[in-house]
Amino acid sequence: MLLAEAASAAGERLPRAHTLRRSADYLRCYRRGRRLGGPLARLHYAHNDLDHPRLGITASRKVGNAVVRNRLKRRVRETFRRWPGGQTLPPVDVVVHLLPPAKDASFAALRGELIRSLERLARREAGRGEGR
Questions:
Q1: β-bridge mates for residue 94, sequence order
Q2: What CATH number was assigned to the domain covering residues 3-130?
Q3: What's the rounded Cα separation, in Å, for the pair 96 and 6?
């Protein structure tokens, strides 16, 4: 099922199957995965055995209080869910680690950086898939 189809079927929310739930999955991305970064967020990603990408989000208290961290997490989920290139992502687990400068960034700036990073990820993994 495509990410956009799953989102519309679930009432405009990111389906539970498309989110990372276990700490072991987060640790696998951090320890064995690859990394892309920007000034607002760092993406850690590792391949999964499923047929779709999954998203996880982390933010330390350095990013801000609970209100700020939860607002940023909602913005990241919204960007991931609405990104039209979601169909181009290979089956990977992506952990978005928010950095302290994200608390002062606008939604447009955060969304732009995330989309650029996700596009880089999709291009990088498409190139790796051709050589296999």
A1: 45, 55
A2: 3.30.230.10
A3: 21
